[in-house]
Specification:
Elements: E1 4-5, E2 21-25, E3 27-29, E4 34-36, E5 39-41, E6 56-60, E7 66-71, E8 76-80, E9 83-86, E10 102-106, E11 109-113, E12 120-122, E13 128-129, E14 135-142, E15 145-153, E16 157-165, E17 183-186, E18 194-200, E19 203-208, E20 212-219, E21 223-228, E22 241-243, E23 248-251, E24 256-259, E25 265-266, H1 273-279, E26 289-293, E27 298-303, E28 315-320, E29 326-328, E30 335-340, E31 371-376, E32 382-387, E33 391-396, E34 399-400, E35 404-417, E36 421-429, E37 437-445, E38 448-455, E39 457-465, E40 469-482
Antiparallel strand pairs: 1-40, 2-33, 3-4, 4-40, 5-32, 6-7, 7-8, 8-9, 10-11, 11-12, 12-13, 14-15, 15-16, 16-17, 18-19, 19-20, 20-21, 22-23, 23-24, 24-25, 26-27, 27-28, 28-29, 30-31, 31-32, 33-39, 34-39, 35-38, 35-40, 36-37, 36-39, 37-38
């Protein structure tokens, strides 16, 4: 049989589709194929946060300097020379198990909200209340304004469909005025609360559970015009959307979508859509968190698995924007960010060569200012996803024919980088819808897996140790008799 390129994680496709992968673990898409997901590495000299992280961001000031912030339920911290320095206001913050900190940058001011205090601002040093601003579930900065959504304020009270915008080029002024262009309004259509908002160029996209609006700056007196996007498409949660540069990618109630300002387009249909909704928790789906690894053109979808009783983010789908293939990189996290580190050198890294982290030479870990996807783990420690892959596994679809039996002698995977070791386990069945039975097994040797099994249909499970990248599979089989 000729080599068949893998199609990425495609559990929703028919199992006899050439190249499908019906199950996988710790394998993610690349521009060339599929690779082992990188492991997490603690940045050199950076310790753990004092309490669980409920939101974090790396922001850039107008002079190009970067700041890394992280929030707990009661405090805000800034990473300064490897130490998490308290930047909270004088009065501690309060929150619940659902509290999340959302950050945005407006010029030199970092704006933060947790839906429990009025908007917070810092231009260096401690955060403080923006006196005239509302409380908000979501905050974004766009087109010289700060916009807040799903708000509580002294005039209108708690209105989950209300939006506010600051004065033009002034994050400290929120009192409505035609002169300053600070104003407020509601998105009443379709009902329900505003769940999320995300910048799209010089516009803003606002989401409810089953509706969305494109907001455009039109000047006074209206200032912002919100046009509802046709269709019953929305976003499940405040962090379930990410700006990928020219488009939003987001998780809705019935699909995963891409929106570029024209119309939302589903990107999971026929691949992982049904699998995702079958395997994610309906109760905690609003906690889904999306991040974009711009360097590698991948979107990470962190979510709560179906059987979770704690609501902790413990699973992850990964989508490659160019190849449109899917993968998986499950682990338990508190939150995820795009981390910008100080870099590491042999001079600044303590210990011996043997004790050094297992990190590829071309990893962003070593680069000052290198961007890398990162997570806070269950120990409150930030980890950049830049380490070597430790392991991975995948299960193919079914290879064979309804009429003819075939005898499989060997299987070859086309590796761009061979793993340290790998195994194969075969399964067989005589009907495509039949029960899988145990077949033969083997190990990677001489760039192939030798095994012996005969049936109409064959399926193969692979496990890998160490870094690897692969593109396709070739099954060496000879035809047997017709039954």
């Amino acid at each position: 049989m000729p080599a068949v390129p893998f199609l990425g994680f495609t559990p929703d496709a028919p199992s006899d589709t050439p190249g499908v992968i019906t199950a996988l673990s710790n394998v993610i898409p690349t521009e060339k194929g599929l690779a082992g997901a990188p492991s997490g590495i603690a940045p050199s000299g950076v310790g753990a946060l004092a309490a669980p992280c409920v939101g974090a961001a790396v922001v850039v000031s107008t002079d190009g300097s970067r700041r890394t912030y992280a929030g707990t339920t009661t405090r805000l911290y800034e990473l300064v020379a490897g130490t998490w320095t308290d930047r909270s206001r004088v009065a501690l913050y309060t929150g619940t198990s659902d509290t999340r900190w959302i950050f945005t940058q407006f010029g030199n001011a970092t704006i933060a909200t947790n839906d429990g205090a009025v908007l917070q601002a810092s231009v260096g040093g401690a955060f403080s209340d923006i006196a005239t601003a509302p409380q908000a579930k979501v905050v974004v900065s766009v087109a010289n304004f700060v916009l807040a959504f799903n708000t509580v304020d002294g005039t209108f009270g708690d209105q989950s469909d209300r939006w506010w915008c600051s004065a033009f080029q002034d994050h400290t002024s929120w009192t409505p005025s035609v002169t300053t262009q600070a104003t407020t309004g509601r998105l009443v259509g379709e009902g329900g609360e505003i769940t999320a908002a995300c910048r799209l160029g010089q516009n803003v996209v606002v989401y409810k559970g089953r509706a969305m609006w494109l907001g455009q700056y039109v000047g006074p007196p209206a200032v912002w015009q919100f046009d509802q996007v046709p269709g019953e498409v929305g976003c499940v949660g405040s962090e379930a959307v990410v700006d990928v540069g020219g488009a939003n990618v987001f998780v809705g109630e019935d699909n995963i979508w891409l929106y570029d300002g024209t119309r939302p387009v589903p990107i999971a249909t026929g691949q992982v859509r049904q699998w995702f909704f079958n395997n994610s928790s309906a109760l905690y789906r609003y906690k889904t968190l999306c991040t974009f690894d711009r360097q590698n053109n991948r979107v990470y979808f962190w979510y709560v698995s179906r059987n979770s009783t704690t609501g902790v983010l413990d699973s992850c789908l990964v989508y490659h924007m160019q190849t449109k293939q899917w993968g998986s990189a499950d682990q338990t996290i508190q939150t995820a960010i795009n981390y910008v580190g100080a870099g590491a050198t042999y001079d600044t890294t303590s210990g011996t060569y043997d004790a050094a982290p297992n990190v590829p030479y071309d990893s962003q870990y070593w680069l000052s200012g290198g961007r890398a996807p990162a997570v806070f783990n269950s120990s409150n420690q930030v980890l950049t996803l830049t380490g070597a892959s430790t392991c991975g596994a995948l299960v193919t679809g079914d290879v064979g024919d309804d009429d003819y039996e075939s005898f499989v002698r060997r299987v070859r995977l086309r590796f761009l980088q061979e793993p340290a070791s790998a195994t194969i386990t075969g399964q067989i069945k005589d009907g495509l819808g039949g029960t899988l039975l145990a077949g033969d097994s083997g190990v990677l040797a001489d760039a192939k897996f030798d095994l012996r099994q005969a049936a109409r249909w064959h399926r193969f499970s692979f496990t890998f140790t160490g870094d690897f990248e692969l593109t396709s599979m070739n099954v060496d089989a000879v035809a047997g008799g017709k039954r």
